[in-house]
Write the structure tokens for this entry.
Amino acid sequence: MMRVPVNEPLITDAAKAYVTQALETGWISSAGPFIEQFEEAYAKFIGVKHAIFVTSGTSALHTSLRALDIGPGDEVIVPDFTMIASPFSVMYTGATPVFVDIDPETLNIDAALIESKITSRTKAIMPVHIYGLPCDMDPIMEIAERHNLAVVEDAAEVHGATYKGKKCGSIGTINAFSFYGNKIITTGEGGMVTTDDDALAARARWLKDLAHSPQKRFKHDELGYNYRPTNMQAAIGLGQLESIDMLLKRKRSMAALYNERLSDIQGLTLPVTKDYCENVYWMYAVMVKNGRDDLCKTLKERGVDTREFFLPCHSQPAINMQMNEAFPVTEEVSGRGFYLPSGLAITDEQIIYVCETLTDVMHNG
Ligand SMILES: *Cc1c(COP(=O)(O)O)cnc(C)c1O
């Protein structure tokens, strides 16, 4: 029996060489030349003026929201179907996440439902590009403009994905990426804030380093954070980024192989793409009508590791908000979906094994 982990990262040779260099030169803390190099290369890659390297995607979201001065009493619109870091980052600021249901096909926030959730306290919209597929950003940007709201893209799952030719993470006011181990570019743990706004960039940079007063070090006028990652992480990120075209090409060919081998299975919904964007297929996410949990258990017994979809945010015990509201699409999708092994180290043979196993289990039980 073949064993296929749900995510096995691919560490490039350049990443290994640079991290060794960081270690051998003794630049192991958050000072060191790779940080600036990685930030500059990442800003160029995304097509923004500023990129600020931080410790995680979660801290990138938190820093972005704090840079916008979002805090207690404010509201931020967040999709109900997302990784918990999206609403948690809002809650860290003291603001309230206000959840919106998603589109059943794209699994991204349903822009048509946003306006009914806007109040006098709303300060920002946080669209989350789910599993590699960019949100339809034009309607979201238009609503934000009309109501004078900031937009914080949660681009943790879409390094290199484009919307109408623009990279995700370059469209919103100030945006966040994650470089966690299972993301398309990884630094082990890490994140990036991206923006074209000079003042927001300066504020983000200041907040991530404990908000030392620019006039007087060790004087602090606002609450800051230590969100400084190390030179070693930047070295890994820079090395990964040099291979980004190859990594994205591989992601697409993995999805093409899955599509080809799975399109005939009755009752299995495959991921979609849209004319307005380029999907990077961070995770190959599928849905079944029923029996998801048993299916995933059987797959696991046969060596195929999968992950179930996120739970609806509003129903998380740690959040427990808007319980009297209905989020029917998120609730349904959340119980039907899972993703197949999608790490960049996967081989075609492994993908074929996954497809054959899934076909067999779905057809023959
Ligand atoms: C991974 C992820 C995050 C959080 O990133 P960390 O680096 O793990 O903190 C946030 N939002 C989404 C949508 C993610 O997938």
